[in-house]
Every structure is written in C-alpha cells, then in structure tokens.
Design goal:
The chain is α/β, with parallel strands linked by helices. About 35% of the residues lie in helices and about 15% in strands.
C-alpha cells in the first residue's frame, strides 16, 4: 500500500496535502464509532505534507515514506504533543522531545495524523484499560481490537492510517494485529531504539510497526531501525533496506512447529493454523517438529519479571516531578483531599487518583516479588528460567530457521468478556510472550479467517526468527502473503 501511494505522489496523481486531508476526513467520519485516536495533530500533519509537496514540485526525489500518513501510539513521545500513555496521571503531560523512532520518521518525511489509544501504560490485551475509554475492533464493533496497541491496529485496519507505531512487551503489537486482520511486527530486542517510549518493562519493551502488508512493515522498519546513542540497549546494527529481502520464496527454509503446542487449541484456531503449515509445505519450506521443553514456564516467568520492572518504572509517576498532582484536581476527586499534606500523602493521593486498577495490580505484584525475603524466590528464579527458555530457542535454531505458531489462542473476544478474570486476559499472551522473553524478532500475519456467530473474524499466525535475522523472517511472512491459503 505504501508503495502504491508513493507512486501516486511522484506521478502527481495526488498531493501529500490531499492524501492527508483524505485520511483526516476518514477519521472524522469513522472514528466516533471506533475511537482509535486520542489526539489529532492536524497542524503538524499539514506542515509535514506541504514540505513533501514542495520537494516534489522542485523535482527532488522523495523517500518511500515521505508524505505517507500514519499514527503514533500514545506512549511514544512527539515533541509538543500530549503523551498520556492513556493514564490520568499523565493527562497533562506534553512531551518536550521526540522519541528516536519519531525523529527518524520525521527525517524520512512521514506524516503524523495523531496519537492513538492503548491500554493504560501498555498493560492489557484488549484496549479496555485505557483511562479514556475503549477502542472498538473495526471488523466487529462489539469486539475488542486487542491490546495494548489496539488503537494502532484499529487505525490501520479501518483505513484511518496507512501505518502505525506500536509497542510490544508481551505481544502488544502482534495480538491486536491478529484480532484486526493486519500485520504486526516486533523486531529483535535492540534493533530499534526505545528512547522516548514511556517504559513499562525495560528488558521486554520493543517498538515496531503495524501495517496492512508485510512490505509496508519492512518499509517502516527500514526507517526506524538502527543503533542509537541515546539507548544503551540498542545494538550496533547498520541501516538497511529490508524490502530487498522480500523475494516471495521460502524454498530451502526450515520452519519449526513446536511439538504439542496446538493440541489443546480451539478447533477452529487449530484448523486455521494447520492450513498455514500446509501452505508453507506447498511453497517449498521444510516443516520440522521441534521441542521447547521450558517454554511451558513462559507465562509465569513473564508475569514475575514484567511486574517487577513495572514496579520500578512507574515509581517515577508520583505527582511531584512527573504527572498530575491530586491537589490540582480536587473537583474531580470524590474523597476529601486534606490541606497541608505530607510528601507520602501527596504520593498516595496522586497515584490513587491518577493510576488505574490494572497498573496498580502489576505494581503491587512486582513490589511484592522484589521485596526483602522474596527477591530470590521470585525474581531471581524467574530470570534463571528465562535463561533456560533462551537456551531452548538457541538449540531449536540449530535445526530450524524460523518457528511457526498461532498468534493468539482465539480470535477477538467481546467487550467485558474477560475483564473480571485477569488470568484469562493474561492467557491471551501465551504464544507471544516467549519472543519478548528471549528477545527474538516476531511477526503476526493474517491467516485463514474463523467463523464466529456468522461473522468471519481475523486469525493471525506468528513467525519467530533468529536474533537479528529480520531478513528471513520478513521474507517468509511476505511469501505467505503473496501465496495465501486458497
């Protein structure tokens, strides 16, 4: 899609301003029902579009993303624009600088339509946890779009953005992409700078694109990837054009399917996945059964390490240096806020009002696991098992190039279906969290749809690649896209 719009721009079939106006018109018409956007950046977008048109008028070459409208998840900083991470405690926060990925997209001439909705502080699998209200799935407005990057996926799926940036800590790009029928890509940990992302769990967080096609994801990745001196965890990876690896062929690739991974799945999800496996066989890939003996511990490992890092990262939001202070919102607080409070009372009142139930739950879990007498039993042991899981992947990648799984255990569920049962909500991440635990790149691609209540709902499949082997991962995903199941 990006390539087609690029051709239209350079052939003068449409201007960047016209294209941007067209997308704002769609947002105005549709988004009252979907609620993908929190903040529209019309002035910024039009300024960016006019610069691209001026460049074209001068006869200068433009890059593939120049003039192409997209959306930014609300936990990524755009200078001068509100960045709330969908939490009331950051309701009045205006980012003073650009995230590195935002800076690179600006330099590439991309157009920013606005900031999109998400689960509060990226903690959720449905975008029902946003402090500003839920986003709806464009495929079926009675169903969730997934999370936490639900606004990003919904914006792309509904045609309200050509591309969007999301963040992925345990599947927050890939799961909503699966639910909304689009492509979601999580790069290798360290491939893309995290500088300027409001941190959730620093050893797990990653920024990546949500797009309509694999080629579009490769185009965005080519812009945002690369080493960054502002992020100590970014890897020394040279800039490259990832679209060069999209050959449409998988002959010779060895793809691993995890033994016993799908036996207890929903029969429809299992059938959809088996069609994908058969298609890869038909395309010439070698399918091999592999074992990941410690992967069964991924969910408990993730839900110890992640809350511990959440507890540390969210400690800064206390109403003093970062975020709103309770006394500034007396009219909005039902409980009486006393005068002349001490520092601890300021912290407690600000966080009680400003932070939602799900972040509080994870802060408490993490603080408990890190507390004296429990650190070794929980956090340290989880990190040791994390190493065992990584070793399983290292051994598996000696035999295969890629690992194939479903993205989610079910298609999109209805609103309120899982909100009262955190365990059921956490199980939505069962196939995606392992990529974050071990740091490998992973992508969700739309597979065969599933019929539910007389509706065809999207169902994605996931490919996980070797560390820093985005090339083969994108190649295999693109090959399925151009040769889908008939």
């Amino acid at each position: 899609m990006i390539r087609e719009l690029h051709e239209k721009l350079i052939n003068h079939e449409i201007t960047a301003v016209q294209l941007t106006e067209e997308y704002f018109a769609r947002i105005e018409k549709q988004d009252k029902d979907i609620f993908a956007y929190l903040t529209l950046t019309k002035d910024l977008a039009m300024e960016q579009a006019r610069k691209v048109d001026a460049k074209i008028a001068r006869g200068e070459e433009i890059g593939m993303l120049e003039g192409i409208p997209g959306a930014i998840k609300d936990n990524l900083c755009v200078a001068g624009v509100r960045a709330t991470a969908c939490s009331k405690i950051l309701d009045n926060y205006i980012a003073p600088y650009d995230a590195t990925v935002v800076e690179r997209l600006k330099e590439a001439g991309a157009v920013f339509l606005g900031k999109v909705n998400m689960d509060e502080f990226a903690m959720g699998s449905s975008t029902e946890k946003s402090a500003y209200g839920p986003t709806k799935n464009p495929v079926d407005l009675e169903r969730v779009p997934g999370g936490s990057s639900g606004g990003s996926a919904a914006a792309v799926a509904s045609g309200e953005a050509v591309w969007a940036l999301g963040t992925d800590t345990g599947g927050s790009i890939r799961q909503p992409a699966s639910f909304c029928g689009v492509v979601g890509f999580k790069p290798t940990y360290g491939r893309v700078s995290r500088y300027g992302a409001i941190a959730m769990a620093s050893s797990l967080d990653q920024i990546g694109p949500i797009t309509k096609t694999v080629e579009d994801a490769a185009i965005v990745l080519s812009v945002i990837a690369g080493e960054d001196k502002m992020d100590a965890t970014s890897a020394q990876s040279p800039a490259k054009d990832y679209t060069r690896y999209l050959t449409g062929e998988v002959a010779g690739l060895k793809i691993g399917v995890v033994k016993g991974y799908v036996e207890k799945l929903n029969p429809d999800v299992k059938a959809s996945f088996e069609k994908v496996v058969a298609q890869y066989k038909e395309m010439g890939a070698e399918i091999k059964e592999i074992e990941l003996p410690n992967v069964k511990y991924s969910l408990p490992v993730y839900y110890i390490i992640m809350p511990c890092e959440v507890s540390s990262n969210l400690a800064r939001f206390d109403g003093v240096k970062y975020g709103m202070r309770a006394e500034d919102h007396k009219d909005s607080i039902l409980d009486f806020v006393p005068e002349n409070r001490n520092l601890i009372e300021t912290y407690l009142d600000s966080r009680r009002y400003g932070i939602g139930a799900e972040p509080k739950r994870r802060i408490m879990l993490g603080t408990y696991a890190l507390s004296s007498g429990y650190y070794d039993a929980y956090y340290l042991r989880a990190q040791k098992v994390r190493t065992l899981i990584k070793q399983d992947f290292e051994k598996a990648y000696e035999a295969v190039d890629l690992i194939l799984t479903p993205t989610t255990p079910s298609p999109a569920f209805k609103f309120d279906e899982k909100t009262n049962d955190p365990i059921q909500m956490y199980l939505e991440d069962i196939f995606t969290i392992t990529a974050n635990i071990v740091g490998v790149p992973a992508i969700s691609v739309p597979g065969p749809a599933i019929e539910v209540d007389d509706k065809q709902l999207p169902q994605g499949f996931q490919l996980m690649g070797k560390w820093f082997d985005e090339e083969n991962l994108l190649r295999a995903a693109h090959a399925y896209e151009v040769h889908p199941v008939k």
